[in-house]
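Lab manual, section 2.4: Encoding a predicted structure.

Procedure: take the sequence of the chain (487 residues), apply the prediction step described in section 2.3, and record the output as structure tokens. A sample record is shown.
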Amino acid sequence: MDAVNAGIVALNDAFWAYLLIPLLLILSIYFTVRSGAVQFRMIPDMFRAMRGDPGLAPDGSKPISAFQAFAVSAAARIGTGNIAGVATAIALGGPGAVFWMWAMALLVGAASFVESTLAQLYKVRSADGYHGGPAYYMEYGLRSRWMGVLFAIVITVTFGLVFTSVQSNTISAAVANTVSTASGTDAASWISYAVGAVLAVATGVIIFGGGRRIAKTATLLVPFMAGIYLLMGLAVVAMNIDQIPVVFTEIITHAFGIREIAAGGIGTAIVQGMRRGMFSNEAGLGSAPNAAASASVSHPVKQGLVQTLGVYFDTLIVCSTTAFIILVSNPTFTEEAGPTLTQNALETNLGPWALHLLTLIILLVAFTSVLGNTFYGDANVGYLTKNPAARTGFRVLVVIVTFLGAIGSGGLVWSLADTTMGIMALVNLAALAVLAPIACRLLTDFVQQRKQGADPVFTKDRMPDIENVECWTDEDLARYKGSATKV
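Recorded output:
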């Protein structure tokens, strides 16, 4: 089994390093040029777009707002990879990996804008608002049902089930580690079963409430967990403020240093930093657009901008916090020490209690990732079939794998998930390459309205040549409050 896992890991490394990441970089450069560097010049509009009123859903209740959709995608993005994954990237690629992680985030923000704007354009109505995602813009934009079906199946299995089990396993291991540390003995075997049962019940209570309940829960938990972690990071940085210039110097010199080039280390830094950035912010993978499509906004570009901000929040803020916690502590870089670098740095600077607080943070980020992943899977099950029983069955399955993940081991499953996630990203990027001009046309329309001093609104009769658009009618527009106000 170890040999099989090693083979899959080697295949994944080659697939991501030599095909997927270069493809994403090439397309992101194209998106950046075609959009006039939207991810840089539209930052003020990103914050402005999160304040919009979502209006009313067909059932008379509030639909998912722009900020709630942002929170759902952040819940899925901000997982244990932001804590352990960044540490591993630094352990393998050195401080220079952080620079390439930043560079990746800045560039792929354009890909995030394109995919989320398209998800908004091709979304469809539901009783509680809207839903959509890459499967929908593949079918309606490209007229390729088979691509939509393939994508929907892969993301449902990968995010909705596999990643859910891995996150619950992470929670179980973190709790067991805290119990062992506190008691001085190995945690009892029943701990994992208890954790699994509690997680399964909590997950069930939330996900059976539908997308609105998931969105509301994410809106409450994401700012809380991110706030705690960022405060810990600020505390560590403040205690080592004199090391900040040194850290920045290390990041830059290791990213471009002659010594690293001579040793071949610069290649490792680039690959590790970019791959970690892509794993973390998910730009171009096709996951976040499922949340973006659910938002009720007055123009597709608004949610595209909001989701681009999500890339910056995840990588430039949360992942950077982990990086600085580690680097100001002058760590020793070894592959084995990767996941423990964050823990050791926190314990060294803040004391043993920081380990237990980190366990709480891991619990929160992993649990919210379960919710966000379930949201993605649920939306794609709805694409595959309109039978309500299928979505109910999927939610039951999520509860089951949440419990099983807590008591099992997910090494091989995680490696296989890397492969399926790569396939998912490849299909999504192929669709974006063809449909990007439509997203750029929408951006031009948005900018023109902003220059006129209006809060931009969109109806499909503004671009009648774009076919298979279900929403964006006068009926949809009437649901928004104050859509004609000046800004």
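Check your result against the sample. The beta strands are 124-126, 129-131.
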